[in-house]
Amino acid sequence: xxxxxxxxxxxxxxxxxxxxxxxxxxxxxHDVRQLPVVDKTDKSKLxxxxxxxxxxxxxxxxxxxVHELKxxxxxxxxxxxxxxVTSKTFVQDAARLLYIKKTGGFPVVDxxxxxxxxxxxxxxxxxxxxxxxxxxxxxxxxQVKNLEDVEEIKRLLESKDCKMIGIGQVSEKHxxxxxxxRIKHRETLPLCNLLSNAGYKxxxxxx
Length: 207
Hints:
The chain is built from 6 helices and 8 strands. The chain is an alpha+beta fold and about 210 residues long.
């Protein structure tokens, strides 16, 4: 599964000259912990991120009380050195990065443009759904050369009304990666034949 399938596309954003007090109000109103900061003339251009932790640190350092936050700009506290993912990043890779960086989420950027945001709640929801489906799912492992192969295999399976539960790399053999395609439980042999006829090597399958 790709990040683009579960990310939030309806973005709540800030401009650099917005005040921290406004950021705090938006976080409370929309129950979010981080807000992207974008260019005022190009809202797809990501400049930084402001998190609830940034706001709390600004208050707790004693430099500003809550009322004085109305004069503190977002630009002065936002994080500029950002970790991002793309809409074609696998969810499991985003989850791994989330764990390593110990953060609450990432902006999703495609070709320099902000297209969404993914949070730990989004990823947790996917894994809860995946764990629920493990007992009633089928799996097909296929050798691929690139991500275009992964997308084409996904398209072929979905053309046969397969409900995709998850996609992930499981190993590498003979210089080619092996990806696992987990689908809602059904007979896998006809699907394996479909993929073989399309030129793909099925390594193994379970149902």
